[in-house]
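Page 47, continued from p. 46.
Same chain as before, 390 aa.
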Amino acid sequence: MELQISSRVCQNLLITVALLICFSAIFYTYYKPTVNWLKWPIVSRCNSCSDICINAFKMPNQTEMVNNTCIVNFTSIKILVTQSEPVTQTDPDTILLIWMWPFGQKFDLGICSSRFNIHGCRLTNNRSQFKNSHAVLFHHRNIRGDLSNMPTLPRPPFQKWIWMNMESPSNSRLHSTLNNLFNLTTTYRQDSDIMIPYGRISEKTGGSTTYEIPYKNKLVCWIVSNWNSNYKRSQYYGNLKQHISIETYGRAFRRPVTYANYSDLVSSCKFYLSFENSIHKDYITEKLYNPLKLGTVPVVLGPPRKNYEELIPGNAFIHVDDFSSPKELAEHLKLLDQNESLYRQYFTWREHFVSSTTSFGLEHACWACDHIRRNKNYRVVNDLNSWYWG
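Result:
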């Protein structure tokens, strides 16, 4: 009888001790005292510490009676607790060094938090911070083939080198020296480590609203400066203009467009030729996202429709591949010009979504810094050339 009472007392004592231990663990986790008075490691994300501790006491061989004395084996508790990482002080800022400004275009180095809600990242272009930087960002177009403008100091083991490129493979020079040099990639491609598209379609804040189409006084428009008669877009335009009137602008047509009047011009067109200069997977540029943002229906020439629909609504654009010939496309555009209800169907997505364009360079730096802050694993791009140009 006395032994049974002692057992119950021991059991109650164990539960009390368990709760005290768990209370201490929770208190230590969130209060983070400067004195390490609790000797055991603490679970950093413990949502049910009491369950863990009490379950440990329920395991076999955790308690026993020896000469009417309650003996407790705390080993399993320690094992359970140490399965998670211990609590640490707030990590210092992750430093990302911009080794060269992309295309020489500078941007504000201190707005990752205000623009993208990215905290704990510090951007710098001060090369004297090389040894302290957690990552270095390199823009492909600015890298010399002999790597003579790359860092010459020994590379810290913890430091990641990030390769940035927003040009298509057709418009990017291949350097055989780039293999086994970088740890991460940031490009427009969806299989990049840090994918930064030329634009985004995102949900409206505040719910759906009716979209008012801007006033139109032009049918089809195209702005182009980089003219190459061998480009597919140049050849398609040559055939299309035989069947429909196209308003052309840009240096290629000796009708330059200024930044100030670009938006008004594009929004005044019912259709805009969003023709890419080269055809590659995921290579969908601002030529698409700008007309979408400005209330014009883009007519796209680029990767297959399926690729576009991975990034934007299928009823937001017209793809040249949907028609057997430029003549058939022209007939469809004329039909939409005469039928307002059919034309409006290309704007139904605007009731729920908005289009935006990317802040070139800035977003790459901010999101790359955020990526390495969250991902500490080692990685190297062994064959960059095959991945991007292969």
